[in-house]
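Q: We require from you a single protein entry containing the residue sequence and its fold in token form, and nothing else.
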Amino acid sequence: MLCVFDINETLLDLAPLDDVFGSAEARRAWFAQVIHTALTITATGGYRDFAAIAGAAADEDVRPKVGPVLRGLPAHPDVPGGLTRLREAGFTLVALGNSPLATIEAQMSNSGLRDHFTAVFSAEQAGALKPAAAPYRTVLGAYPGQDAIMIAAHGWDIAGAAAAGLRTAFVERPGQRQLPGGPTADFSAPDIEVLATKLIEAGTAR
């Protein structure tokens, strides 16, 4: 099975941005605005560089600091071990983010996660931001005939992937929840380690 991982918050910890914005609360408010803007642009049929959205949502005095910190985010502690177990069990791992491809490649490299992934994909390759169908279908098109599961810590990502025909797994990061009344993920777990156990036990690798 093809495991398609979201990146920010799902794999990478945004907490280092707390120092940029002055507090965890301010950082969460900034990221919520980024996501709200991206969803609005997607819902109205447009596309905008996700990095540009992230910069525009930040106050001018901190804007220059956001990009460098984003590119250097660390992985959540549960991520490396969970990814290793999935690979060893026969899953194919790829990453799919809304950020530009160059940013994603930098994030994967700087976090030490790149070697776990067969490939990384960006919404910019599809000309549409998740949760539009195009980014998910871009990944599916690169792996024809493979069953795929989207793994994400955001309800909107779960909904978009499900609509595009992927199975889904929700990672219950602090403060995240599945969409009320939305599609319920096929799997849910508090972290990647526990999710790996569930997927392996379900026999979905091959």
About this structure: The two ends are 5 Å apart (CA to CA). The beta strands are 2-5, 92-97, 119-122, 148-152, 167-171, 187-189. The CA atoms of residues 82 and 194 lie 8 Å apart.
